[in-house]
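Hey team,

Filing this mostly as a record. A colleague (T.K.) asked me to run one chain through the structure pipeline before their review meeting, and I want the input and output archived in the tracker in case anyone asks later how it was produced. No errors, nothing strange. Just documentation.

Input sequence:
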Amino acid sequence: MDPGRIIVALDFSKKEDALRIVDELEGLVNFYKIGLELFLSEGPSIISLIKAKNKKIFLDLKLHDIPNTVYKAVKSLLQYEIDMFTIHTSGGTEMMKKALLAVKEYSYKENIPPPKILGVTVLTSLNQKALNEIFPFSISQEVLVKNLALKAKQAGLDGVVAGASSAKEIKELCGNGFIVVTPGIRIEKTEFHDQKIVATPQEAFSLGADYIVIGRAITRNNSPRRIITDMIK
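Output structure:
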């Protein structure tokens, strides 16, 4: 297993805890996810602290607002040299295109490589029952994910965040170059926590995922290095 395809989720509220994991996994993991909890509690400085250790940052804030607001928000985020970030595909085609425009303008102006934009399809905490409660019409989870992924592709996004079970069909629909990042990764399939759609690393990659996001199975373990080492054997 290529360790470069593993993204460790720093789901903490304190920078000390996040930096401890980064240091413990030095030489094994190069890509880290910063989500709402850590970003809001520590601010953008946490990005700089981790980038100073020569790591890649996946900023998972799932932006979702009117197009012009997302455009301005993306412009603000890009100053922190992130490598990948998320917006909600359900924000619509115009919103996704405005996010892409912000990336193109900023990258051209600063002469830097553009970060990858990923569209969030359906949260892995939602199952079919939850979707039935949200929508006043019947739509399968699989169809919804594929439709949102296709909209993201048509809007020019680099890829999507989706459960492992959808990865193969997304690749067939959007092409092999379209990135699929899969959260809800568990070392054992018996570990669900608050996720409804889970997979092991091996399952996710075999189904076509380009990257996996794994959090608690690593960060809440007493031996995170051992877990990662065992994964990449």
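Quick notes for T.K.: The mean pLDDT is 91. The beta strands are 6-9, 31-35, 56-63, 84-88, 116-120, 159-161, 179-182, 211-214.
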